[in-house]
Specification:
Blueprint (H helix, E strand, L loop, with lengths): L6 E4 L5 H4 L7 E4 L8 H9 L3 E4 L7 H4 L7 E4 L9 H7 L2 E3 L6 H16 L2 H9 L20 E5 L3 H11 L4 E5 L6 H7 L1 E3 L2 H7 L2 E4 L13 H6 L5 E4 L8 H9 L5 E4 L10 H4 L4 E3 L8 H18 L15 H6 L14
Parallel strand pairs: 1-2, 1-3, 3-4, 4-5, 6-7, 6-9, 7-8, 9-10, 10-11, 11-12
This protein binds glyoxylic acid.
InterPro entries: D-isomer_2-hydroxyacid_DH, D-isomer_2_OHA_DH_cat_dom, D-isomer_DH_CS1, D-isomer_DH_NAD-bd, NAD(P)-bd_dom_sf
Keywords: NAD, Oxidoreductase
Pfam family, one: 2-Hacid_dh
Amino acid sequence: MAEPRPRVWVSQPLFDDIVERLGEYCQVTAAAEVAEYSPAQIAAALAGADGALVTLNERIGAAEIAAAARLRVIANVGVGYNNLDIGALNAAGILATNTPDVLTETTADFGFALLMATARRITEAERWLREGHWQQWSFSTMLGADLHGSTLGILGMGRIGQGIARRAAGFDMRVLYHNRSRLPQDTERECRAAYVGFDELLAQSDHLLLVLPYSLQSHHIIDAAALAQMKPTATLVNIARGGLVDEPALADALAGGRLAAAGLDVYEGEPAVIPELLALRNVVLTPHIASASLATRRAMVSLAVDNLIAALGFGADAGRPPTPVNAAALAAAGNAAIGKTAAIKR
Ligand code: GLV
């Protein structure tokens, strides 16, 4: 008898023409509408699945996979995967994959756009104009901060950070960065970026961009003490994860004139934004759209589908998903989740 096709859960509507590829190998249950799931609903959806295609909205940990006896792979549509408890997935022998590279340049473009909008007060100026405040051209209207000739600090110098550094060269900015590990000298030269310690980065940056992964170690890395080390004229931009910033402390610094402006694409409790930030005029707020160009969002879904198909043992890359997250940990644990055929795991 033919083996049953693996069952795959697709948690949100993505691009139908891309997700359709899963149907060649798997039985697919896909959400028809954008959905917000309770932990119990996620657990129920995963309980009968061999694979899942999820977004950063779905938080998956030990409780959600407790009844997922067949689950072999979770393909996350996103480069960040802090919505997944990798320790719990490792313990259960479940592979996680993400979507790096395909979103690097689009996200770096957006980081720069948000920086420019924030430093030059673009959205604030537009709001002011639309509200009918513009009575006469004046020299002192909406004075902002220059990008050219300024010092750009980048916290987190992975692929996206490097993309931002390359763009900054075109604006004649001095680029400083801090990262867990220093980049090779060739890469530093190519990015025209100099490595500094965290405190120095805070103190010297005219504009500070956050592009580092969120983890327990980086939780609230920008807190009241870090903000106090920044120049009062500085701009802070966060395109990584909301949990990197202590938002009430940021709102306090912005309201008290201890920081000039902030551009935020991500929030600790998103989609909720704290009222203290919403009330401020010197903050540009966008709804987590840094990778949201049509081409890039399609490429992310396509890569996630490739990962799922390969991890379930099908297609040209059977057993070799292109961008695994925890393959090394699973291999070290002697787990054979990768490289298996489509056979059901347990
Ligand atoms: C989006 O935030 C991503 O991690 O891809």
